[in-house]
Design brief:
The protein has a two-stranded antiparallel ribbon with strand order 1-2. The chain folds into two domains: 92 residues, no CATH class; 67 residues, no CATH class. The chain is mostly helical. The chain has four helices and two strands; from the N terminus they run H-H-E-E-H-H.
Length: 186
């Protein structure tokens, strides 16, 4: 649930001739859902740059069947949820893909793993070929699982930070144990 739609939001997906009063009526009686399914990574989906510096995008949606099944499940639940069993007008289901310009939570652009021939990063998110390069954003995720990956990205950054502290044999100091400029404890 993401708040409440109004007639202005419904106008975007309604037929051009739908009267404002009808849209207002539908909005007052509607239950709003945001249903998201994952668009799984695929090797043919990629961004490339040509020799003239122009950016090219190759994108094909590969996970459409699970999305259709999820929408069908929601429609099956409408009766048990106490909603009318009448047919749902097709225009009232805004089954739209977010356009590329509106995409967020990009992930899956820097594969990680144990084999440098099939991955760019090791399991600690360190580049196989550059000793002091770590990638701790969401690009190492295989996908974002159709949810906001921010907390998982933060948890991973803390995990990688702990790894770096161990690798550097560094020690964390707390606010109640300040360290002076010369490194001695006060």
């Amino acid at each position: 649930m993401l708040g409440k739609s109004d007639r202005h939001i419904l106008r975007a997906g309604a037929p051009w001739f739908a009267p404002g009063l009808a849209l207002e009526y539908v909005a007052r009686h509607a239950i709003d859902f945001w249903i998201t399914t994952e668009d799984l990574p695929h090797p043919s989906n990629r961004v490339t740059v040509d020799r003239l510096g122009r950016i090219h995008l190759a994108k094909t949606y590969h996970n459409l069947e699970p999305h259709r099944r999820l929408l069908a499940k929601l429609k099956q639940l409408m009766g048990p949820l106490g909603c009318h069993d009448a047919a749902i007008p097709a225009w009232s289901i805004l089954d739209k893909r977010i356009p590329l310009a509106g995409v967020a939570h990009q992930s899956g652009t820097v594969r990680f793993g144990v084999d440098p021939t099939t991955s760019a990063l090791d399991v600690h998110c360190r580049a196989h070929d550059v000793d002091n390069l770590y990638v701790v954003d969401t690009s190492f995720f295989p996908s974002s699982s159709a949810v906001n990956p921010a907390l998982t990205a933060m948890a991973n950054a803390l995990r990688v930070g702990d790894h770096l502290l161990g690798r550097l044999d560094a020690h964390v100091t707390t606010a109640d144990q300040p360290v002076s400029v010369d490194g001695s404890r006060r």
